[in-house]
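Pipeline run #58 for the internal structure catalog. This entry was flagged by the ingest filter as a single-chain record with no existing model, so it goes straight to prediction. Upstream metadata was stripped on purpose; only the residue string is passed forward. Reviewer on rotation: M.T. Logging verbosity set to normal.
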Amino acid sequence: MNLPIPDPSRADILSIMSQVNRASRFAFLPIALYVLFSCGTTAPAPTPPASLPESPPHVVETPPSPPAEAPVIVEAEPSLRIGNPRASAVDLASVIIRFTAIAVNPASRERTLGSVDYELFVQDVSVARGSTATRTAIPAGEQTEIELELPLSVRELEKTTDIADCGPEATWRVELRARWTSAYEEAQETAASAGGRFPVIREPTFSIVAIKMKRAELINTRLKVELRVNNPNAFPVGFESMSYELFGEGRSWSDGVAEQLVVVAPGGAASAELSMTMNFIDMNRALLDQFIRLEEVRYRLKGEIVVGTGLEFLPEFRMKFDKSGTSAVTE
């Protein structure tokens, strides 16, 4: 059931408002006080905590960069080699070793070649040494050649080496050493060696076996001188020609030149006959009687033989001879 709410009178309303005003006055007091003190008074700013004085910043100094170096050029090394090494004979007693020393500078700058030292060995025995008295500037990328000839005496080699008993060939070797200098690098040394063989040539020997009277005429007598030839070499030799003079009992019997006498095999022996004519006019009576009686006579045969070898090293050589002895005169 709804009860009717009476309308408030004016007096009631005023009374209620008055009571509210008194209560409100005390209710807003704290707020008013807060506003008063917060707005009317400025609170001091808090004191910041004490701080140590700041140290200056640490600066790391970087040393200046060194100037850029020029790039290092590594040059190709010089070289030394031996070209066309060979041995040749002048005669039976002399040998020459020939070769070319080739010095090469492959660098992009000039180098100087000092003297070239050499040492020659025969049968592994040092037989010659020396130096070229040269100092040569070699431009970049070029080379120089030095021709060398080293003469040898076979007779001296027989004293200092075993060449006399070494067999058909002797060994030889040459060693070179050269020093290089330049303005842009340390001194350098180069070396080279080369060698080969050369034939050892020995003189053939011969002896007179007999003197034969082939035919006697009124004035002249034809003779045959029988020879025995020995060849100590490892290749055949031939008596290409023989110039001679024959003496009997101290007097000249005959002279002349004989061609193509004999060819002797390697290490072998062969016989040869030397034909000649003796003139009785040049013979004294005693020798003539001795010759006619076919008795022994003292002879002397001297001259020169051209010996052929067939070798490029020494195609031929001359051999002098002077032989004497006693021989029977036979028919």
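catalog note: The mean pLDDT is 82.
catalog note: The CA atoms of residues 114 and 126 lie 23 Å apart.
status: ready for reviewer M.T.
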